[in-house]
Amino acid sequence: MKRLFLIPIIFAFAITGTAFCSGATISLPLSLSSYEAMEFGKDLSLAQVLLGRVSASPFNLVATVIFFLAIIHTFFTGKISKYAQQLQQNFSAKLENRGKVCFFSEICHLFGETEIVFGLWCVPLIAAIAHNFGWAGVTSYFNDSVNFAEPIFVIVIMSMASTRPIIVLAESALGRIARIGNYSPSAWWLAILILSPLMGSLITEPAAMTIGAMLLAKKFYHLSPSNTLKYATLALLFVNVSVGGTLTHFAAPPVLMVARKWSLGLGEMFLQFGIRACLGIILSTVLYFLLLRKEFKKMPSERLAGGNSGEIPPRVTLAHIAFMAWTVSVFRTPALVMGGYLFWLGFTQATRHYQVEFSIKNPLLVGFFLAGLIIHGGFQAWWLSPILSALGERSLFFGATILTAFNDNAAITYLASLVPVFAANRALQKAVLAGAVTGGGLTVIANAPNPAGQSILAEYFSGAISPIKLFLGAILPTIIVAMCFTLF
Fold first, then answer.
1. Out of 3, 307, 330, 396, which could bridge 391 as a Cys pair, Cβ 3.0 to 4.6 Å?
2. What is the distance in angstroms between the CA of the first residue and the CA of the last residue of the chain?
3. 234 and 357 together in one domain
4. Total domain count for the chain?
């Protein structure tokens, strides 16, 4: 275990060799059309297609192995964090170390942070690119192939959504529903888990996740629910947010990736996806509430009134809403997003007596997580595309649901948009999109806003959040949502 943290670094040096030597000038990654040109007219099985693409570009296998090692790493973050705590305790137990910090313990803490994992494994990936294609290959990939618009957007919108005026506004609105249940923890639980994900269709999923997680922390998690209820709640939040943004065509990342190319309008999204999403959210939340009612009875019967939006002048709240609207409208232009962000920072400073202490740590960690996932994800099209192309409508839905657990659902829909067979087939488009949003709660990496929720609520779990327990908690609501999309 003491040498576990060295794995990504050793991997990097082992494959580097001539890292900074000049290599062949090619476009990274190799385009899907290049593979399809080589395969045109040949009757190949899926296995033959994949083997042929590895032969055409052996680096495919290297990048994918590194990617899956990063995924495996995420399943061990909990154990690494516990080991780091043990190291610090053993270090502090020695008299001469009182008040000091164990350096190796801090390093292990770093490697135990889920949000850091994919960024860490970018080190061996970059070394592998440099070894195979020279440093020009690295700069070419980052300049021409990688788009960091989404991580930048998530950092900014998460920061804005976590401010006091926005949280108080959301708390006041949801409090009107929680009042029906006398502001009990279970009433707040139902209101937050059903309504805040649906807000994602207007204010975007990252903002909805931020608001939902912060309200759950304030109204529910601070009451120390059982471990089962903690994981069930987090899993349900992830699943509900993933499908809750499908009432519109501009709020959920997997929808946004294909809305223009597949001509998905507001009406079609609401009728084909939104109604089913609402049904799935309500059914899964109510079912979990009924199954876990004994766990709710064990919690303190505390009455938690809603927020008072009158404490903050309406003009301040409206200004925050305007900044968020600007950020959403210029999502694809990072320079304008950051320009608005700087103005927003100045505004929050000018109105600091209506704000709470601002921390950029969580938004930056989430943005770093997404950036690392995007860097790795750019090299996964070679195997994802043929797998999606080989599936029928029903199998495509379930295939996209499963694949989403191992990659961001926005990446799944984006890659599907590049596959020619999807271009004019509405049934396949709907199947892959529905499958991608359905599986968005199975893992932390399955949906872009998930790291935001985990980052906000991580302090309420003992040690790091277990990916296995999260996955198990998400299975039932995922099945219910899948039934809503396939049977109705």
1. 396
2. 49
3. yes
4. 2
- Give pLDDT tens digits for 175-193: 889 989 888 899 999 999 9
Q: Which of 87, 120, 145 is the last residue of a domain?
A: 145
Whether the Cβ atoms of residue 434 and residue 418 lie closer than 8 Å to each other: no
* Stretch 193-208: mean pLDDT: 92
Report CA 238 to chain centroid distance, whole Å: 9
User: Which residues constitute the domain of residue 285?
Assistant: 150-487
Bond into 8 cis (ω within 30): no
Cα(356)–Cα(352) distance, integer angstroms: 7
Closest to 196 (Cα-Cα) out of 219, 222, 180: 219
Domain end, chosen from 83, 116, 145, is at: 145
Read off the amino acid at residue 478.
T
What's the CA gap between 439 and 398, in Å, rounded?
A: 9
Q: Are residues 50 and 114 in the same domain?
A: yes
Please state, as a whole number, how many other Cβ atoms lie within 10 Å of the Cβ of residue 86. Answer: 13
For all residues of the chain together, what is the average pLDDT? Answer: 87
Name the pTM for this structure.
0.80
Q: Are residues 111 and 162 in the same domain?
A: no
Find the length of the chain: 488
Q: Is the dihedral of CA 265, 270, 274, 276 positive or negative?
A: negative
Running DSSP on this structure, what letter comes out for residue 356? Answer: -
